[in-house]
Amino acid sequence: MRDLSGIVKAYDIRGVVGEQIDTEVVRDLGAAFARFVGGPAVVIGYDMRDSSPSLAAAFAEGVTGQGVDVVDIGLASTDMLYFASGRLELPGAMFTASHNPAKYNGIKLCRAGASPVGQDSGLSEIRQMVEDGVPGFLGAKGSVSQRDMLDGYAEFLGTLVDLSGIRPLKVVVDAGNGMGGHTVPRVFDGLPVEIVPMYFELDGNFPNHEANPLDPKNLVDLQAKVREVGADAGVAFDGDADRCFVVDADGNPVSPSAITALVAVRELAKDPGGTIIHNLITSKGVPEIVTEHGGKAVRTRVGHSFIKQTMAETGAIFGGEHSAHYYFRDFWRADSGMLAALHVLAALGETDRPLSELMAQYSRYSASGEINSTVADQAGRMAAVREAFAGEGVEIDELDGLTVDLGDGSWFNLRASNTEPLLRLNIEAPSDEAVAELRDRVLAIVRA
């Protein structure tokens, strides 16, 4: 029996092409997905990786072999695939490994309306079907049709955030040779925004730097270019352009928590009293600002399936994560880095202040960023940290890993990685000094 445990992750399918993922297994995954969703059609998009077109074609063979049609939208960002799924009311498959190196590829699956398919919402059944052998289909094969969704995607985003009346802006965009190079020119066409492009050439070998702006070393080129050309801001997208990272005119990164707070305030202005979702690693400033603006803040676990599920349950208008994923009710509760970028630029273009000044009101605390430690005994180290702090009158919860609130504005979260022998530490405190002190104390236990 096949074993797909190495490639079926919590939220998607991902692995090394030729070793873990090939056209044969992808064809079977397509057949299993077709049986899982039941038709009438599946929309398929893919990124710029060398392996993506052939893997997408194999998946399409599996789908049509089960009597289900395929709508092929070709090159796409992940949020463009979500747009197609929502607009066409069809389940979808996006071929991408996001920010992973060139040798990787994968599949993000969704039901009609961009509803996520994760481990607990269908991915385990699809995996089981492939491992057991997908049943054959005796009826007529499905058909494949091509459809260009880029114009519709760009026009739809323009209905959600209006930049037409803002002051002229100069913005450096680092696409990292990823799908932002495909979508940004169309989205910003005709807007009062001068785009200074960096690495817009689609190249799945990532010749300039990894398409992972979460790693500070991959922002260096963007920061330098922003200062060089005197831009108002810089924006970096990851490989499949579903996440965006922002730097100000001085090249200083803007925290995703501050962007979450800014977008939340803008969405609450349109929908007073609405619910805003934030995961437990975003800044405490986010729920404070949401409450001050008349909204209701709801805290969730980390991960898009939890965010989207909670948004559906609460009717939330917006959700944000510390990892720069931003979710919008009006975008089928899906995440869109492009839509978040448009919000930031709209807010900047509506004021004469620089971005650093605009964002200062949304940045209330100092943060460590994510600190990873390689640990063999994750549970044992977490228990040791819990024991060390338990007797100090702190507030402890275990919604997702271990969160310890010291009650003085300082808190930390320690979580085990789903896929690696890592513990991930995030700290927030009133000052850089307090962050450093708490970091050193927790890491001394974790790494003992």
Automatic annotation (TrEMBL):
Cofactor: Mg(2+)
Domain Alpha-D-phosphohexomutase C-terminal: 370-443
InterPro entries: A-D-PHexomutase_a/b/a-I, A-D-PHexomutase_a/b/a-I/II/III, A-D-PHexomutase_a/b/a-II, A-D-PHexomutase_a/b/a-III, A-D-PHexomutase_C, A-D-PHexomutase_C_sf, Alpha-D-phosphohexomutase_SF
Record carries keyword Transcription: no
Domain Alpha-D-phosphohexomutase alpha/beta/alpha: residue ranges: 8-131, 152-251, 259-365
Domain of life assignment: Bacteria
One BP annotation, GO: carbohydrate metabolic process
Molecular function in Gene Ontology: intramolecular phosphotransferase activity; metal ion binding
Keywords per UniProt: Isomerase, Magnesium, Metal-binding, Phosphoprotein
UniProt-listed Pfam families: PGM_PMM_I, PGM_PMM_II, PGM_PMM_III, PGM_PMM_IV
Keyword Protease: no
Family: Belongs to the phosphohexose mutase family.
Protein name listed in UniProt: Phosphomannomutase
Organism for this UniProt entry: Allokutzneria albata
Phylogenetic classification of the source organism: Bacteria, Bacillati, Actinomycetota, Actinomycetes, Pseudonocardiales
